[in-house]
Amino acid sequence: MILISSDIEYLIITISLVFLFLTGIKRRQYANCDISDFVRGGVIRWLSIDYDFSQSIKGIACVLILMGHYRTYVLPPSDDETLITKIVGMSSANVALFLFMFFSGYGMSLREYEGHDIKQEWFARVKKIYLPLLVTCVLMLVVYAFLPDTMSISEAKSFHVSRVLHELHNIGSSNFSKVLLAGIGWGDWYVTCILMFYTIFYISVFVCNKINVNQTIILSILMLVYFVWAYNYYGAPAAHYYRYPWVFMLGHIVARWNKNPKELSIIVMSIFMLTEIPCGLYYHVFSIMALSILLLVAFINTMYEMKSTYLLFMGSISYFYYLCHERIVCSIIAYTGVKSLLLWALITIPIAYLISIIHKRITNV
Q1: DSSP element (H, E) containing 18
Q2: pLDDT tens-place string over residues 46-65
Q3: Which end of the chain is more exposed for a tag (fewer CB within 10 A), N or C?
């Protein structure tokens, strides 16, 4: 088998991520740490992932999304696509999104909300999700203003340079709204879904506190309503809007496994797994891959701690990495004339970190 440049870059990044993970785990010293998160009634929990491990997985996942987008947006369509590029390019982003959605439901559901001001917490969560997007999009327009509008439409499409750059340089009454919407982050499906899921989650907490009903029941009903609405409203071309409610619910069920009746958890997940059916065979395979990774990581986490400085750092900027990799970095690299996955992945790191610092300075969060 002949390896092409994209194969080599995919292999380099994949091997590097695996290497950082394996060299970053250290044997857990149970005598010197609190293992209550891992042991219940003398039995190790079947799926529990601590904060540092989840952060490291998020750090890996943000790079996986970029790897998937490289094949989708940058590599030219080809009938001679190699097996490595096809498999890694197709699976990486889908597996990563599964992991992000799982940890969203998992992290939210580990907390206790009794006696909390739910409206205030919801608003704080919305700001935490939206403000980084807003800061990134404003900086995107600043960067676009300094980049020359010299590419033809075909060249810009080939390098996946945002059409907004051209609109900004030729702004007028006819396209002002397009630039404005881009500047506020309009149309980011992932952020939209997360905001919807979090809003539904807080509504379920608010309702169950009022009527004293198990939150999982309320959350399940609301998420099913969302799925039906999204499935009918967006349709197959935008399946990502309805593909992940069951993954968010899986995170919730796992986090509440020792608090909810087992029968309820099993029934809820059985119902929600049916919503995966319309997604197609490929996504079933990607889901199995992501679940396998979660189970493996959870098993490793019972015996090891994550100490990788690099992966923990990547986890801390993973959201900014996702937000800027396509909006800003892809367009900057395009002007070098180089199509390189490795270059894209590496340059995104300092830019994501810089944006996180700017965000922190502006919002004081």
Answers
A1: helix 5-24
A2: 567 899 999 999 999 999 99
A3: N
